[in-house]
Amino acid sequence: MAYDADLADRIRQALSGRADSREVKMFGGLSFMINGKLAATANTHGQLMVRCDPDRATELLTRQGAHWPEMRGKPMSRGWIVVDASALASEKAFRSWIQEALNYNKNATSE
User: Fold this and answer.
1) What is the DSSP string of 50-72?
2) Distance, CA of 104 to CA of 79 (rounded, Å)
3) Predicted pLDDT at 45
4) How many domains does the chain have?
């Protein structure tokens, strides 16, 4: 299973020091679990998929490079967003997406 190794390293670094994180190959990429719940995934196209608050999805989709993810050609449910690699170039932008995932993860009830 191929995924963007550089992006995976960035996610790994952002989550370093967290005892509650682990990596799992899924969704055609490398996913990062926090507290047993999916938070972010590095995919094969250098895109970051994050799990976010469904109530914030509409607002988050207005950010540069953000769009609804698809699974097998069908849109995924609210609460998942894919961010294009070009929109992750700055460390500030990248960290803001990771923080969105971590903020929601605190209240999420399942994977």
Assistant:
1) EE--GGGHHHHTTSTTEE--EET
2) 9
3) 87
4) 1
Residue 111 tokens read as 């994977």
- Using one digit for the tens of pLDDT, what is the confidence trace for 17-27? 888 999 999 87
Using CA atoms, how far residue 22 sits from 7, 32, 69, 85, in Å, is: 16, 6, 22, 23
Residue ranges for the chain with pLDDT beneath 70: 1, 110-111
Nearest to 16 by CA among 34, 31, 1: 34
The domain that contains 50 carries what CATH number? 3.90.1150.30
Residue from 47, 51, 49 nearest 37 by CA: 51
